[in-house]
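Entry 14. Ran structure prediction on the chain below.
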Amino acid sequence: MDPVGLTVLAATLAAATVLGLLWRRGQGRFRARGRPAAPAAAAAGAAEGEAADATETAGTGPAGEGAAMAADTDGSTVLGAEEIGAGLGERATLVQFSSAFCQPCRATRRVLEEVSGMVEGVAHVEIDAEAHLDLVRRLNIMRTPTVLVLDGRGAVVRRASGQPRKADVIAAIGAAVA
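Output, structure tokens:
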């Protein structure tokens, strides 16, 4: 192989390695706020984006009762008990989106059940992503497991894609309760 081809190969492998490490580093980490701004709202500017988020509604909930997905005054998504198919926790709710053949989903379920059992007033709700595609689309869930942390009134305050660590879940609950 010529020296130019080796250089291109080495640069490609180095770039792929760096991108892979950055991607892996973010897996299971909680991010503030539940939902990224819609592309149209982000392009229109901050003031218009906030107005669009505050007035957003969506189609039907999981049971088909026509529930609207509300937005809080700060633009965060607010979910009700009818949308997630279970009651909200008094202090916080851990909402897990899973799929049937997802191995990390099982481990995530164990972690979230353990944490919800440890912390009083925290509920864990698992939602089958395949059975609730409308909700998955509205919340921009791209993979399973995805965990949303809701505060006591149902506002999404933290979000993680991938399998979160127990300490990170506890810290996210702390942010939801504060």
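Confidence is low (pLDDT under 50) at residues 34-68. Will compare against last week's run tomorrow.
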